[in-house]
Amino acid sequence: MDKKKFDKENFKEKLEASGEFPQLYMFKFIVPNGKENEVAALFPKHEVSTKASSGGKYVSATIQAMMKDPDQIIKIYEEAAEIEGLISL
User: What is the pTM of this model?
Assistant: First the structure.
C-alpha cells in the first residue's frame, strides 16, 4: 500500500501563511493502543492529552507546543510518521 506523498513545501507555505512565529501549534495524532508513549517521546517538555477510543483499540493524542518556525513543526511530523500505525490529523 502506497502512503500518500507528503508535500513538504506546500505544507511549509501554509504554515508560514498561518501567522507569526513563534506560535502555539496543536498536534493531533491517532495511534494504536500502546503506542501513545512513542508520541509522548516526541514532546518531552509538553503535556500530552490522551483519550482511548470507545473500542479501546486506538488512542488519540493532542499536544500544544510553542513552535519557533515551520521547519520545527515539519520535523516533528516526519519523526511521528516513523511510528507504526500513526495517523496525523
Answer: 0.88
